[in-house]
Design goal:
- Keywords: Signal.
- The strands form two sheets. A two-stranded antiparallel sheet has the order 1-2. Strands 3-4 form a two-stranded antiparallel ribbon.
- It is globular, with a radius of gyration of 12 Å.
- Helix 2 crosses helix 3.
- The chain contains three helices and four strands; from the N terminus they run αβααβββ.
- It has one domain.
- The relative contact order is 0.25.
- The longest helix is centred in the middle third of the chain and has 15 residues.
- By secondary structure, it is of the alpha+beta class.
């Protein structure tokens, strides 16, 4: 992909229904390795559906060649890197 493509990430929209977020997590993690979201994983904290869904959705987005961030209207493409340092100083890096 071009440099421009690499500068976008897919995250969950803030007010998305929790069931939708869980469906997104299940959908992605059925297909891809979501180990970073399990206990002890670098993106487990904060342990919220919104955080976990955003990390999972971005994995899927990367895996689709930065094409698929729809998730039935619950995905949003952002140009600011959502990676963060969580509690216990674990760095959650968005792919």
């Amino acid at each position: 992909g071009s440099a421009a493509e690499q500068k976008s990430w897919c995250v969950a929209i803030d007010n998305t229904n929790l069931n939708t977020l869980q469906s997104n997590i299940d959908y992605v993690c059925d297909k891809l390795n979501c180990k970073i979201l399990s206990v002890g994983g670098s993106c487990f904290y904060p342990d919220t559906k919104l955080n976990h869904a955003s990390v999972a959705m971005n994995l899927f987005y990367r895996n689709s060649g930065n094409k698929d961030c729809g998730f039935n209207g619950s995905g949003d493409i952002v140009d600011k890197d959502p990676s963060y340092t969580g509690q216990y100083r674990t760095k959650c890096t968005y792919a």
